[in-house]
Amino acid sequence: MSSATEAVPLASGDHVILPAEERRVIVASSVGTVFEWYDFYLYAILTPFLSAVFFPSQNQTAALLAAFATYAAGFVVRPFGALIFGRIGDLVDGSTPSS
Predict the structure, then answer these.
(1) Global pTM?
(2) Domain spans, the chain
(3) Of 53, 79, 82, which is closest to residue 66 (Cα–Cα)?
């Protein structure tokens, strides 16, 4: 087995050989996802503190709800960003999906 490939076990006991470039893409995607979810986690944990800083503090409940609405907006917008930037990435990469 060469250093550019690695065997991956399947449920049936067979192995699939992944090219080094494909493994690199999988690792990069995984690292990006971990950072993204860590960012969402930090925002959720710090929301009570951020709401007092970024939203009017006359009504703490309204400020907290506004901070959580901002948090929710990040989840709502994610699929649209994936559609737009995924298409741009496919065009730049040159690997447009066939229709």
Answers:
(1) 0.57
(2) 12-93
(3) 53
For the segment 23-33, the average pLDDT, to the nearest whole number, is 89
Quote the Cα angle for 63-67-71, to 5°: 165
For the chain, how many residues are written? 99
Q: How many other C-beta atoms are found inside a 10 Å radius of the C-beta of residue 89?
A: 11
C-alpha–C-alpha distance, residues 39 and 45, integer Å: 10
First vs last Cα of the chain: how many Å apart?
36
What whole-number distance in Å separates Cα of residue 46 and Cα of residue 85?
28
Instruction: Give the Cα separation of 63 and 50 in Å (integer).
Output: 9
On the question of pLDDT at 18 being above 80, the answer is no
14: left (phi > 0), else alpha (psi -120 to 50), else beta?
A: beta
